[in-house]
Amino acid sequence: MRNIDLGNITQAAADSFAGVPDRRQRELLQALVQHLHGYAKATKLTHAEWRAALAFLHRVGDISTDSRSEFCLLSDVLGLSSLVDLLGSAPGATPGSVLGPFHTAGSPWKGNPADLTAGNAGEVVLMRGRVLGVDGQPVPQATLDFWQNADNGLYWQIDPTQPQDNLRCQLKVDEAGHFAIRTIRPRPYQIPTDGPVWHDLVGPAGRSAWRPAHVHLIVSAPGHRTLVTELFDAEDPYLDSDAVFGVREALVRRYQRMDGVDVPVIEIDLVLGTQTP
User: Fold this and answer.
1) Residue 126 · residue 184 · CB < 8 Å
2) Is 195 exposed, middle or buried (0-12, 13-18, 19+ CB in 10 A)?
3) Cα–Cα distance between 172 and 181 in angstroms, integer?
4) pLDDT average per 10 residues of sequence, the chain (277 residues)
5) Alpha helices (H) along 44-166
6) Rounded-to-integer distance, Cα 273 and Cα 236, Å
7) Based on the number of CB atoms within 10 Å of its own CB, is 230 exposed (0-12), middle (13-18) or buried (19 or more)?
8) Could you give the 3-state DSSP secondary structure of residue 268?
9) In this structure, what are the phi and psi dihedrals at residue 248, rounded to the nearest 5 degrees?
10) Which one-letter DSSP state was computed for residue 183?
């Protein structure tokens, strides 16, 4: 098209992706163009603001590493991560919550029950439960990917005093879907405040940097939707002001004393939705 103007540039840009072979990818790209152009038009975006936004994204990329994703943090503080979690939650299944910027693939495999307490300060606790389908039946093929912060509130990726893969593991549930992880009680912590997401967005908005204490879980099983979620401490003071909008009432649990167990216990049944064809 030789004569591009305000009236036709958006449609021309969207149409330029009409040749993308994958239908879903084509739909995502064309909708992205439409919404980005709509944002620019609605806000009357200036050259200076556009250049500032590009510079911000460059800084986000510059600070990101294999073990720290500032782009993931950006998605989290904008509420996009939680929105995608809510959109993807299966009816009757455990709700999802944010992946966070400190997940790394390839955590060490442990036996079930697992014990992650070695070398860690803090209150020892037990997290246990079952993995079930929406029909209430155990899912014995399920695996868990688990990670959390240390007693000082830090993850190993940003704390050189911790060994690599501290307080994280993968494990398989037993034939009845049970799992148990002996660990330490996680602590509330601040999202990273040394990068552009904090300095350019969250800090200037006067928002809290705090996340309530939680553990992370990815639960996978053949024929089921993968669940990315968190479990929160019911006694945490930051449940109502989570910096990344991740708290769901169904994911809040209380540590309790139970007969036959020497440490406080937190229990939950993790319910997986059926895989969509």
Assistant:
1) no
2) buried
3) 11
4) 87 96 98 98 98 98 88 94 90 92 90 97 97 97 98 92 96 98 97 94 96 97 95 97 96 95 96 86
5) 47-63, 70-77, 80-88
6) 29
7) buried
8) strand
9) -125, 140
10) E
**Which two structure tokens, joined as six digits, stand for 160?**
């050189």
Which positions ≥6 away from 215 have C-beta within 8 Å?
127, 146, 147, 148, 183, 186, 230, 231
Identify the CA nearest to 159 among candidates 200, 187, 130: 187
Helix boundaries (H) for 44-175: 47-63, 70-77, 80-88
- The residue type found at 30 is Q
| pTM for the structure as a whole | 0.86
What was the pLDDT predicted at 1? 61
Question: Beta-strand (E) ranges in 142-213?
Answer: 143-147, 168-172, 178-184, 189-190, 210-211
Rounded distance between C-alpha atoms, residue 183 and residue 255, angstroms:
13
Reduced to 3 states (helix: H, G, I; strand: E, B; else coil), residue 15 is helix
